[in-house]
Amino acid sequence: MIKKKKLKKVKKLSIDEQIKAVAAKLRKEAGIEDLENRLKEISQKRVPMLTAKMKHILGDVDLTKKDTLSKEQKIVGFYHALVTRDEVVLKALTEGTPGDGGYLFPDEFKAELIQAMDEEWNLRSLVRTVPMRRDVMKIPKTVSNPKVYWTSEGATKTTTSAEFTEVTLTAYKLAAIIYATDELVEDSDQFDVVKLIIDLFARRISEEYDKAIAQGSGVGEPTGLVTARAADNIASIACAGNLDFDDIINLVYLLPKQYRANASFLVANANIKELRKLKDDNNRYLWQESAQAGEPAKILGYPVHEVNYVGEGNIFFGDWKKCYWFGMRKEMAIKVSQDTETAFTEDKTAIRVVSRVAGNVVLGAAARALITIP
């Protein structure tokens, strides 16, 4: 008697499973898997090749070993890797990838940028800078102080209270982009490419901060001093025609005494020319040249800062640490990318710095303005 063999049940594959099985078989037969593994192995083991010019700048270094590099080598090496599409070096030198593509610049770039911004005088150094943990920051301030009474013995005491209001700091995004050519690093043996890139950003961002503090509209950007003055948040007086000695005296003593000790002038270049010509009743110039290099000149003993963004129509005088707050919502984020249309079509690299800042007059009583009318 012939025994019947039991047939094994064959599992029926779904359409997706059948497609995957066929694809895996084709990849194996074509040797694609072996090729991918080999390329991955070579990529992980290789040492990045540097051009003769880059070796002159960086020395004979391995850019994948981040801990052995100086900050200059990291910044220039990262930029060079981006231009040459060196993925191994890019991944080695960056801490991660932004959600919108590109690569984050090494932290050393941020530190050098902030340092470069602080090396030169700027209006932001005069005002108070505060960290912000939220997009909107409410700052309480007094509208009226408690009243004080003299009372006789046994008399009923009158109760009083201080009234408060709020000033709002709202953070806005500021972005700066530089499109650098692919030849920039290759030509950098003729100049310091690190300093060039950092200084370009530092100068433009500092200028934009100063512009916002001086004249920001408050719509999509911080509220500036000129806007606050126009809204009567900073009291002002006017002068018609040319400036004279009395105008400056009136401005100084319009400011309450408690704010004059640390006060200074903010003046546009066109008005500085007029201020330098002013004389007192004894025909002596009010303008006092600085006694030390780097220090501002003075009028009536108060420093004069040239801030062209306030415009020829305004001269400000005040204690700026008390008057104006500049909020820093987010530390600067720096991204480098070649994904933009301009970068791709013109062989350029986009370097982008983004910060979120706020600014507003917190205490208008700490400043005064002189409106000049031609």
Low-confidence stretches: 42-48
Total count of strands = 14
Shape descriptor reads elongated
Q: Tell me about the biggest sheet?
A: 7 strands, mixed
Content-based structural category:
alpha+beta
Could you tell me the mean pLDDT?
78
Radius of gyration: 32 Å
Strand-residue proportion: 15-25%
**Fraction of helical residues:** 25-40%
CA distance, first residue to last residue: 124 Å
Report on the architecture of this protein.
The protein has 374 residues and is an alpha+beta fold. 36% of the residues lie in helices and 24% in strands. The protein has helices at residues 15-30, 32-45, 52-58, 71-83, 87-93, 107-119, 183-186, 193-215, 225-230, 245-254, 257-260, 269-275, 320-323, 341-345; strands at residues 103-104, 128-131, 136-144, 163-170, 172-181, 236-240, 264-267, 287-288, 298-299, 302-306, 314-318, 324-337, 348-361, 367-373. α4 runs antiparallel to α5 (87-93) and α6 (107-119) packs across α8. The model is unreliable at 42-48 (pLDDT under 50).
Topology (elements, then pairings):
Elements: H1 15-30, H2 32-45, H3 52-58, H4 71-83, H5 87-93, E1 103-104, H6 107-119, E2 128-131, E3 136-144, E4 163-170, E5 172-181, H7 183-186, H8 193-215, H9 225-230, E6 236-240, H10 245-254, H11 257-260, E7 264-267, H12 269-275, E8 287-288, E9 298-299, E10 302-306, E11 314-318, H13 320-323, E12 324-337, H14 341-345, E13 348-361, E14 367-373
Parallel strand pairs: 2-12, 6-14, 7-10
Antiparallel strand pairs: 1-12, 3-4, 5-13, 7-11, 8-9, 9-10, 11-14, 12-13
Helix pairs in contact: 4-5, 6-8
